[in-house]
Amino acid sequence: MITPQHHRAFVVSAVWTLLLIFLGSVVHATGSSLACPDWPTCFGTMVPTMVGGIFWEHLHRLVAGGLILMWLLTGWLVRQENGPAWVRRGWVTGLVLLLVQAVFGGVTVLLRLPPSISTAHLALAFLFLGLAVALAVETSPHRTDATAHPSLRSTLHRWGTAASGFVLAQSVLGGLMRHLDAGMACPDLPLCLGQLVPPLEQPLVALNFFHRVTALVTGIVVIATALTVLRSPARGQLRRLAWGAISVLLLQIALGVASVAANLTVAPVSLHTLGAASLFAATVVLAA
């Protein structure tokens, strides 16, 4: 069976987006978000000296620009290979998301990192990632689905959609917490300020605590989604995807603990963001 080139391009775009989200987290964690104080240039040029924070911030911009070019190539391949109308509509939606995302990135810099705009910038990145992953799954000629088990297919679609929704919400909440500098509002684990339920009248403490509570709920939903597959007659790729989702979830929990224990150092925090994006992609694959 011939694999269409536009399917491969959707896969590359999804992986590219994961890299971009990771770099965005590195930019924030290294304090490089305003290393280039202007936009779209950096100190008035497109080729600044790549040192210190400028390296991370401008690299992030270059990778973002590369993703737009990659998406344009993907659209050209869809057209050349006569992709279905719904794939073309999905591609157009993705292009709009990318362009809006780029504008939000510029506004974030020009307005000096307002938390609401910065968080919306992250949310748009996750939405584009979900779309790219879904299109990659749907255009694959080797797509594994549950057509042999109609009840599983329906159930998995519901649970997978719910899981991806929870992971998305949890990730956006984590982004808001990061941009409000609430990451260490609860400096201890598993308690918060030495209490099971901390004083919630303090906004940053309440935000941090809510992030932990929703993480627990999200984890339960992801595991329930994976168990839907593991307890079914499904075999092969679907089961591997289910185990993969559980593995990424456990790794993500460990990275969250490591981030707090290491006082939000660059490596665990950035990998924690990548873990969230990877878990979101895994749940979208299961839903699709």
How would you characterize the overall build of this protein?
The protein is an all-alpha fold and 288 residues long. It is built from eight helices and no strands. It has helices at residues 5-29, 52-80, 85-110, 115-138, 150-179, 203-230, 237-261, 266-287. The mean pLDDT is 92.
Task: Spell out the key features of this protein.
288 residues; mainly alpha; flat
Write a brief caption for the model:
The protein is an all-alpha fold and 288 residues long. It has helices spanning 5-29, 52-80, 85-110, 115-138, 150-179, 203-230, 237-261, 266-287.
Number of strands: 0
Can you summarize the main beta sheet? none
The proportion of strand residues reads under 5%
Principal-axis shape? flat
User: Which stretches of 5+ consecutive residues score pLDDT under 50?
Assistant: none
The SSE order reads HHHHHHHH
How would you state the average pLDDT, rounded? Answer: 92
Number of helices: 8
**Residues in helix, %:** over 70%
Going by helix content, strand content and strand pairing, the class is mainly alpha
Whole-angstrom Rg: 20 Å
